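Task: encode each sequence below as structure tokens.

Item 1
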Amino acid sequence: MSTAATFATGDVRARLSHSQCNIADDSDMNTKSCLRVLMRDTAMTGDQQGRSGLQLRGAIVMAFASPLQVGVRIVKSIRPDLNGRRLINEEKTQTWLVFNGLRHYVTSAQVYDALFRPGVNFDHLPDLDSVAEGPDLSPGTCLVSDSETGEIYLIFGDPSINIRKYAIKTYENFVELGLNEAVVRTVPPIVLAAIPAGRPIHFTMPSS
């Protein structure tokens, strides 16, 4: 497991913020720029064309190459190899929890407190932006256990749209995720039965 840096809980908890960075999509702007270049270079006189056909072809190639240079898109990948990891950005202001191959943004300090045990560490990955994102862990996110079976669930989502319960299938996975047993609430099965189930959280533990 290769990471650039690891940060302790106190540092992460103190620096959480709601700031988000959005990458603007420049594809439309780039397309218009390409069209302007093509129109300019294909409007040459016959004498100019005869003198430098190679220059015209070069301009066309350069024009269509520009979106690759200006409007670069980051390809995001599902990363089951990161399951159980807790990730942090380089500025140490945003954190994510990874399960089912997706990173889930911890939206606030309150959500952080509702999930993680004291002393848990977060890792910074150089290619963090390439990890595909799942739904945010938003306010109201909680850990609950079935009062009859003892099975533990992570519950999160927008109650009006897509709240889900995610069964954490093994205690080893629970520990690997950095979750806190002390904040798990016990609820009767009838409460859990009313919540749709998401994909269970179950992953192979990393070799020691």
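Item 2
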Amino acid sequence: MPRVTVLEADVARARGLAEQARARPNPSINVYAENFAGDLDRNARNQQQTTFQIDQPIELGGKRSARIAAGEAGIVAAQARNRDGRLVYATELARAYAGAEIADRRIAIAEDEVEEATDDLKVARALVGAGKEARLRQVQAETELNTLQADLENARALKTAALARLSALAGITTPSPACRNHSWIGSTPSRRSAPSTLCRRRWCALQKPNGTPQRER
């Protein structure tokens, strides 16, 4: 789940900055060397001078405590953003599941209507062939069937778009067969196929603060 990963990375970054804020400034060591060749005018070649300097910054005025407090506040803010982001993501994921479920049911309804229209067309052709109905009856049945077939194709296209959105939110490149047959939402397991383990874990991962999927039962 890319979005959850980004939220967790933001919290980890805030914790790293807070840890760094607790560290004290590092000391520095400097070495200076002078008169490498000595004093040639006075023929004093042993007057080389080497100076070692150690600097240790000392923070005054509560600078370190203020820096630590700012780091802790950064962690709190990152955790708040994490919670808000998870809630928004969970809402969008639930809507995506619902949209995919609705699209799946629309396909089922459209398929039933196409089947009924096909039967009506067969009856109309039989009646027209027997001379019991005018040609107009068959034309009307054919028009109705073509319209319902177009609605069925549109419903299938909407389902493809809904699955693509669901896959993008869940971080799945290609939905598994169980995810495609996602009509388990809001239905009993005895009548609907259960979702795949991967699909369930995408959802369960949002229910724990640390993003760890819950154990499946």
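Check on item 2: The radius of gyration is 36 Å. Helices lie at 2-22, 63-129, 135-170, 177-180, 197-204.
End of task.
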